[in-house]
Design goal:
With 191 residues, the chain is mainly α. It contains six helices and no strands. It starts with a helix and ends with a helix.
């Protein structure tokens, strides 16, 4: 074989290999860019959901601080409507959060803010204070998530609060409730 033909053949193989490597690099870069964009989109959705949950928690805390004493009946109904809606809203937006432990913690806290065990003897003020503590625990968890930190451990008082009604942890789905009076909201079972 002539040396010039051999040089041309080697050159052609080199061009083909270089072109293939360039095309492969472009495909890899596009796939990597698509994955990075998808990860950024999911993180953006999760952050938006966390911010929506934070807004809901702050609204719930405000309603718990105000209570329903010395208010008109329509304001009283609004108070209970917000508490019933709280659990559903948190559970809905928590689905965008990638951390299963965080989702479970937020759902449990929201549930315990809304309801209590059968025959609950706590005063209204005590229920409201404990509900605000559960909201604070959820806010702390979301803050840790937004800072990309691990979910913090529950403090002793919150753990004791949840331990009073261990069977309540099994109710992790949405709760449909008819209109209820103050006594029914915290003192009824879910059966």
């Amino acid at each position: 074989m002539d040396a010039s033909v051999l040089d041309a053949l080697i050159g052609l193989i080199g061009v083909a290999a270089g072109g293939g490597a360039a095309c492969g690099g472009v495909v890899y870069q596009q796939r990597h860019g698509t994955r990075a964009a998808d990860t950024a989109r999911r993180r953006g959705e999760a952050v938006a959901a966390a911010e929506r949950i934070l807004a809901e928690l702050l609204t719930t805390q405000q309603h718990l601080r105000q209570g329903f004493h010395d208010v008109a009946e329509d304001e009283r109904q609004e108070y209970f409507r917000v508490l019933r809606r709280h659990h559903a809203t948190v559970q809905l937006y928590a689905q965008w959060l990638p951390d299963a432990q965080l989702r479970d913690r937020l759902s449990t806290n929201a549930l315990y803010v809304q309801i209590g065990p059968l025959g609950d003897q706590r005063s209204d003020a005590q229920r409201r204070v404990e509900g605000m503590a559960l909201c604070t625990d959820s806010i702390s968890c979301l803050g840790s998530y937004l800072r990309s930190e691990a979910v913090p451990h529950r403090d002793n008082s919150t753990s004791e609060l949840l331990a009073r009604w261990p069977e309540g942890r099994e109710f992790h789905t949405f709760i449909f409730a008819e209109r209820q009076s103050e006594g029914d909201l915290h003192g009824s079972s879910l059966d």
